[in-house]
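BUG: 3D viewer hangs when loading the predicted structure for this chain

Environment: internal workstation, default settings.
Expected: structure renders.
Actual: progress bar stalls at 90%.

Input used:
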Amino acid sequence: MLTLQVLHGNPTPDELAALTAVLMARVAQAAHPAAAAPARSASHTPPRRRTSWRMAGAYRPPAAWASVG
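Structure tokens produced before the viewer hung:
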């Protein structure tokens, strides 16, 4: 059995109920870690990174670094 003790403050019954629900969900997740991880399908591919719109050898003016960001 899990014992919960409030050391500081005066939580409302709603706050205690919310904390209890979160803690119980964490305990259930730790007991069954395989059920918590979503299954990946064979057709799943990771998202592609966006390619830069700038060409690799494009000309950049001398003060271009000042306008970045």
